[in-house]
């Protein structure tokens, strides 16, 4: 007895469903153009809406020079977000991970905020608690949209 063959074999459909599920669960791809200040830097950002209705921001940067090595030298990298409701605001310091003897070239930031972000900006500052961005923008993402 001949049984009809399925048009889409199950072994081909399951990997496709898994891939689509992973793609939907991730936030939008946040693109950073090459920085003229730190061209070797490789930023990767992720923004997700939490169960509490806030927005989680995670930023990791590889090959980032220490702020003291910039021209002019600075003390800190500060992470800013442009939001729909409050404009640009300081959300914290991008921390360099230093090894025992030297800079590892890696920096990271994790934080949450109540407003929906639309852009991530990193500046070099002498004080991490500044209220307004300085003139030394190091990284600036393209504008992105997070689902409500």
Automatic annotation (TrEMBL):
It comes from the Bacteria. PROSITE patterns: PROKAR_LIPOPROTEIN. This is Lipoprotein.
